[in-house]
Every structure is written in structure tokens, then in C-alpha cells.
Design goal:
By secondary structure, the protein is an alpha+beta fold. Helices cover 18% and strands 32% of the residues. It has a 4-stranded mixed sheet with strand order 5-6-8-7, covered by helices on one side. A two-stranded antiparallel ribbon has the order 1-2. The protein is elongated, with a radius of gyration of 26 Å. The protein binds S-adenosylmethionine (SAM). The site of S-adenosylmethionine (SAM) has 8 residues, from loops.
Length: 180
């Protein structure tokens, strides 16, 4: 059906046809009604080659802090936290269903794999939240277990023999009922 035959394409106050020779853009701007006064609106369009290119264009600048992006018409909300993991999680309020820990090898990067990280994960986890990580390092295994996660080994990827995965099994009630 042509746009001009559409039921909603009728009774406009003004219709402007536009063509931009440089870009090849053709547009029809249809103003329904300005009875309540003038208004200014706008829309942007850009043809991306694929979804990865569109996502890259949305990627925030390298500025520390929280960045939020709305995708798929608002059905997906992406929150990116740029900064040291401990600081970022300390200021986060969330209810995570799943974690993937991908922060360089613990031996080379001990600043990331701290007990504080695992305690934040516990605080921010929904009951039964799952985790996975490429590493099978003992400190990580123990830290996660101390934070209440059941930790299991699984076959690793590539050159890694093992990796870890598991789920939160203990999450104490933050407001326990007073005993009689
Ligand atoms: C192996 S890369 C993985 C990145 C991402 N998962 C990917 O696949 O592209 C490790 C990432 O962990 C980040 N990282 C390492 N230590 C960190 C820390 N203490 N706080 C926050 N991010 C950290 C690094 O900046 C790097 O982006």
C-alpha cells in the first residue's frame, strides 16, 4: 500500500516533500495539526551495514561512570560501567541473574579478583544467580565459595584445561524475623 493510501495519511495541515541530492534521502514531512502552537521535533536515520555496526556507533565515549543505552525500541537496556570493578559495583544497585568474569588472569591482575568483588556479587545477585569464568584459579574458587556460591569445574576453552561455573546457594535474609 502506498503511504498516501494509508488511513492515517489524511487531513494534514501541511505536507512537505524533500529530496537531498547529495545523500539520496527522500522524505515526506506531514504536519497533522498546529492548533496548540508550533512544536519542534526531529528524527535521525542512518543506514548501518549490520547490527554490530549500529551497536558500535552507540558505544559511549571512554568517560568513567555509568552509561545507559536503549536498544531494540527500548526493549533492551544496556548499562555499561566504566571504571575499577570494585568502585563500580559498590555504587550499583541491581539484581543480577548471571555473571561472567573476564578480567585477565588472576595471577597477572590480582587487583580485580578480590574478596570485595565476590561479596559485591553476592549482594547484587538474585537468588540462584549463576556465574561463569574462564579461570580455575584457587583464590577465585575459594573467594566465590566464601561469598556463598557453589563452585564447580568444567572443561576450559582453547588452551585452558578447566574453567569455573556455578550458582549462588546461600543468600541470607537481610531482615530476619526477630526470634520470639
Ligand atoms: C580480557 S579483557 C575482556 C573484555 C571483554 N570481556 C571482551 O571479551 O572484550 C579484560 C577486561 O577487564 C578489564 N579489567 C581488568 N581489571 C579490571 C578492574 N580491576 N576493574 C575493571 N575492569 C578491569 C580490562 O580493562 C579489560 O577490558
Amino acid at each position: 500500500m502506498s503511504v498516501f493510501a494509508h488511513a492515517e495519511f489524511d487531513g494534514h495541515e501541511q505536507i512537505v516533500h524533500a529530496f537531498d541530492a547529495d545523500t539520496g534521502l527522500r522524505a515526506i514531512i506531514a504536519v497533522h495539526n498546529t492548533a496548540r502552537g508550533p512544536a519542534v521535533g526531529g528524527c535521525r536515520m542512518w543506514p548501518y551495514t549490520d547490527e554490530a555496526a549500529a551497536l558500535t556507533a552507540l558505544y559511549p565515549p571512554p568517560v568513567p561512570g555509568f552509561h545507559r543505552r536503549h536498544l531494540a525500541g527500548g526493549r533492551v537496556v544496556l548499562t555499561l560501567l566504566f571504571g575499577p570493578v570494585e568502585d563500580m559495583l559498590a555504587s550499583l544497585s541491581a539484581r543480577a541473574d548471571a555473571w561472567y568474569l573476564d578480567g585477565f588472569a588472576p595471577r597477572a591482575n590480582p587487583d580485580m579478583w578480590t574478596p570485595a568483588l565476590f561479596q559485591h556479587m553476592r549482594r547484587l545477585s538474585a537468588p540462584g544467580a549463576r556465574f561463569a569464568t574462564f579461570t580455575a584459579a584457587g583464590d577465585v574458587r575459594r573467594g566465590l565459595a566464601e561469598a556463598g556460591f557453589a563452585v564447580g569445574k568444567a572443561p576450559g576453552f582453547g588452551r585452558k584445561r578447566d574453567c569455573l561455573r556455578g550458582e549462588l546457594i546461600a543468600k541470607p535474609d537481610p531482615h530476619p524475623a526477630a526470634s520470639p
